[in-house]
Specification:
Blueprint (H helix, E strand, L loop, with lengths): L6 H7 L3 E4 L5 E4 L1 H6 L8 H4 E5 L6 H5 L6 E5 L14 E9 L2 E8 L3 H8 L11 H37 L10 H13 L4 E9 L1 H8 L1 H17 L6 E4 L4 E7 L4 H15 L3 E3 L2 E3 L2 E8 L8 H17 L4 E4 L10 E2 L1
Parallel strand pairs: 12-13
Antiparallel strand pairs: 1-2, 1-6, 3-4, 4-5, 5-6, 7-9, 7-12, 8-9, 10-11, 13-14
Helix pairs in contact: 8-9
Protein name: GGDEF domain-containing protein
Pfam family, one: GGDEF
InterPro entries: DGC-Regulatory_Protein, GGDEF_dom, HNOB_dom_associated_sf, Nucleotide_cyclase, Rev_trsase/Diguanyl_cyclase
Length: 337
């Protein structure tokens, strides 16, 4: 008994089929196949595809000799050919319908993932019972899992970056902290880099805390942080290394007179009144300076110690001034701002 199969049913059951006559002329192509290749009614079967395995001679009869067996084919007019030019290897099964007509059902083989992605196919392009649909679902699940892993990795990387940043940042001022400064000086010393170093201690800051409280003191410190950031360039570093102590490192600087001028400018800025809740907070700063070029080997501990000596020379000379330390010699006379 012969049962005529409606064409719309054929399209749903075999969306990648080819219906051809006894002369090998295409009578109909499934909707998904038409998305993959430029195929239309009247094309010859040989112009649409090439049978790679098994090797066949000419004639539809030779093709029907392999009825029901799996064939390996390539579409000659595939729409989305990879950039390297290698066309997809696909699978096909052919059936003889009688009166010389034949039906070939084409499906993806091992290249299903790249083929589906290359042609932008979805589950709706395949028959409901096609194993490719299950593969697509697995691909979507894998993509979702990989996407979630990627988002998780991004969040972890962001969290790690934030933790690393917080570990070397002073929370109150937003400047670098002592740990960051020690690491920076060590790196500069190992590179034998040229730099200038300032050690700043605020003058009269304790009176702000004593008279107006720690909230006022914290506000003053945050303003000082902004003032110091304004005095450095990209590549320089400012760090809060104690309650009211700061270190400034000027990369590539070998001009001690320039360092003096910067120090004097910082002191003048610090002496400008800072308003907090209607109160004037008045501070200043004492600074000690040294230069990496003063030393044959610029050891961080030695530079810090000499800058500290120069700082206290400024304090003892009346505050609000800067002094320059040189190795193997007493610091020069403190210079008021």
């Amino acid at each position: 008994m012969t049962v005529a199969l409606p064409l719309d049913v054929l399209d749903r059951m075999m969306p990648m089929h080819l219906l051809f006559d006894g002369e090998g002329v295409v009578m109909r192509a499934g909707p998904t196949l038409r998305r993959l290749a430029e195929v239309k009614e009247g094309d010859s079967l040989s112009s649409v595809l090439r049978v790679l395995q098994p090797r066949l001679g000419t004639g539809i009869g030779r093709l029907f000799q392999h009825e029901g067996r799996r064939l390996t084919i390539q579409l000659r007019q595939e729409v989305a050919v990879p950039a390297e030019g290698h066309r997809s290897r696909m699978r096909a099964v052919v059936y003889e319908l009688g009166a010389g007509q034949g039906l070939m059902n084409i499906f993806f083989g091992a290249d299903v993932a790249s083929g589906v992605a290359r042609h932008g196919l979805s589950a709706g392009d395949f028959a409901a019972f096609d194993p490719t649909v299950e593969i697509l679902f697995l691909m979507e699940a894998q993509s979702a899992v990989l996407g979630e892993f990627q988002r998780l990795n991004t969040r972890l990387a962001d969290a790690r970056s934030l933790a690393e940043s917080q570990a070397v940042t002073d929370k109150l001022t937003g400047l670098k902290n002592r740990r960051a400064m020690d690491r920076h000086l060590t790196d500069l010393a190992e590179e034998r880099a040229v730099f200038g170093l300032m050690h700043l201690d605020l003058d009269y800051f304790k009176s702000v805390n004593d008279t107006l409280g720690h909230a006022a003191g914290d506000y003053v410190l945050s303003v000082v942080g902004k003032i110091l950031r304004d005095q450095v360039r990209k590549g320089d570093m400012v760090a809060r290394v104690g309650g009211d102590e700061f270190i400034l490192v000027f990369a590539g600087c070998s001009d001690v007179d320039l360092m003096r001028r910067i120090a004097e400018r910082i002191i003048l800025r610090l002496e400008e009144p800072i308003l907090w809740e209607g109160h004037e907070c008045r501070i200043s700063g004492s600074i000690g300076i040294t230069m990496s070029t003063f030393y044959d080997i610029p050891e961080p501990d030695r530079l810090m110690s000499d800058a500290d000596v120069a700082l206290y020379l400024s304090k003892n000379a009346g505050r609000a001034r800067c002094s320059v330390a040189t190795p193997n010699a007493p610091p020069d006379e403190a210079r008021p701002a």
